[in-house]
Write a structure and sequence with these properties.
This protein is 32% helix and 25% strand. The protein has helices at residues 45-52, 94-99, 103-106, 114-126, 142-156, 172-187, 202-205, 222-225, 228-235; strands spanning 5-16, 19-30, 34-38, 60-65, 77-80, 160-164, 191-195, 208-213, 215-221. The strands form two sheets. Strands 5-6-7-3-8-9 form a six-stranded mixed sheet, with helices on both faces. Strands 2-1-4 form a three-stranded antiparallel sheet, covered by helices on one side. Helix 4 crosses helix 5.
Length: 245
């Protein structure tokens, strides 16, 4: 597999009110994979992403992005949060949301110019949202909102993309459009990490998978580790899914 390491996690533990949500996670994610994080509700999937991004402070362990702490390499990272965590009533247009993706490379002083606007418009076109650029985000459907946030991430031109359940509440057409874009990013050498709940689509959508249930159960290429044994260890002894090809 790829030799270059995009993300390295050592001994990561996160707890809420002294109860571990993630316990002693060691995880090495190579560059240029499209990876699903799967596990039952409460397994710590979203928490893992938030801990990597410094949104949640772990009680132990370390995370590096291309060998450096996240804060030193944050410009290499784009994040699409869960739809439920976003204030969709905030008065702004779809275009303005996507344009925000260019701010990281501009810094605090500079304002986005014609080049940044061009990048934002191209990202909106790529996700099929150009016709809605002047629409208030509150007026968009769930699938359209998700496409806008994906476009914002594309406008960042990051090296690593984190996506927290990007297919939640979207129609089939939007889901296909999103996964095609994610596969395109992977082909371009990007690393894409997705919290995902639909086990049936894992072999079709992803080439790498991490099984998580507070502890890391297994990680590696889908073809090697996406099997009944790891599904049972992750979801419980009675859990069986006819997903193997």
């Amino acid at each position: 597999m790829n030799e270059k390491v995009a993300i390295k996690i050592d001994d990561l533990t996160v707890a809420y009110n002294y109860k571990p949500v993630l316990w002693d996670i060691d995880l090495t994610i190579p560059e240029s994979v499209l990876m699903a994080i799967v596990g039952p509700n409460g397994a710590g999937k979203s928490t893992l992403i938030k801990a990597i991004l410094g949104i949640i402070k772990p009680i132990a362990g370390s995370v590096s992005i291309y060998g450096k702490p996240y804060q030193k390499n944050r410009k290499l990272v784009a994040y699409v949060p869960q739809k439920g965590s976003v204030d969709w009533d905030f008065p702004t247009t779809a275009f303005d949301v996507v344009l925000m993706g260019t701010y990281g490379k501009l810094g605090w002083i500079k304002r986005p110019g014609q080049n940044e606007k061009k990048i934002a418009l191209e990202a909106m076109e790529k996700v099929g949202m150009l016709a809605f650029k002047n629409r208030q985000i509150s007026q968009l459907s769930g699938g359209q909102q998700q496409r806008v946030f994906l476009a914002r991430a594309l406008a960042q031109d990051a090296s690593i993309y984190f996506m927290d359940e990007p297919f939640q509440g979207v129609d089939a057409t939007t889901e296909i459009a999103i996964i095609n874009i994610l596969k395109e990013l992977r082909r371009a050498g990007k690393t894409v990490i997705v919290v995902h709940h639909d086990l049936q689509t894992v072999p079709e959508y992803f080439d790498w998978v991490t099984f998580l249930n507070v502890k890391k159960i297994a990680t590696g290429p889908v073809k090697d580790i996406f099997n009944d044994d790891n599904l049972t260890k992750t979801y419980g002894i009675n859990y069986k899914v006819a997903v193997n090809k």
